[in-house]
Amino acid sequence: QRNKLDIQTLNIALGSSNSVAHISNKHADDMNQVAKEPSKKTIQVHSKTLDSQNEERIFLLKIDVEGMEKAVLEGAHSTLSRVENIILEVDSVNYERYGATVSEVLELLVKSGFKLIGIEQDCCGKPSLNYPLKLLGIRGENIIATRMTEEEAVMFIQGINCQN
């Protein structure tokens, strides 16, 4: 509201099917993950596909699901055609936990018509682009899957730098 943006948040888990998911309930909420089985250390939540949400157009979709990125993308086949930009984390260790690989996730994005760009930070913490994408091989790399041209992406990231 402060930024006068139309942002919608959904209190659901996203996955490859409409079902129930069991998610760890750690105090460090940025590290919770889907559990393979329910336990006293998990909570049950509704899991839906992104396609079931019937969004018309999405300018920016942020996916940070600690390794379940492939499942979210698999549940978004028709939605992906209406998404302009996706920011997601690439982490082979987290992906392997759920039977996915980095190349499978990147292939899903490319097949959906996205160009892949790496997001790096300079020594001052300002973002810069790595285009075309060259993964650095570190855990937790952030990338942008976009429909922008390289020139548009550079202008976009420069605009972010100017606002900071």
Describe this structure in words.
The protein has 164 residues and is α/β, with parallel strands linked by helices. It is 22% helix and 28% strand. The chain contains four helices and eight strands. The protein has helices at residues 69-74, 92-97, 102-111, 150-163, and strands at 13-14, 19-24, 42-48, 58-63, 83-90, 115-121, 127-130, 141-146. The strands form two sheets. The protein has a five-stranded mixed β-sheet. It has a three-stranded mixed β-sheet with strand order 1-3-2, with no helix packed on it. The longest helix has 14 residues, at 150-163. 23% of the residues are buried.
Oligomer: single chain
Report the sheet with the most strands, covering strand number, pairing sense and barrel closure. 5 strands, mixed
Which secondary-structure class do the elements indicate?
alpha/beta
Strand content: 25-35%
Give the structure's gist in a few sentences.
By secondary structure, this protein is an alpha/beta fold.
Topology:
Blueprint: E1 13-14, E2 19-24, E3 42-48, E4 58-63, H1 69-74, E5 83-90, H2 92-97, H3 102-111, E6 115-121, E7 127-130, E8 141-146, H4 150-163
Parallel strand pairs: 1-3, 4-5
Antiparallel strand pairs: 2-3, 5-8, 6-7, 6-8
Characteristic key phrases:
164 residues, 4 helices, alpha/beta, 3-stranded mixed β-sheet
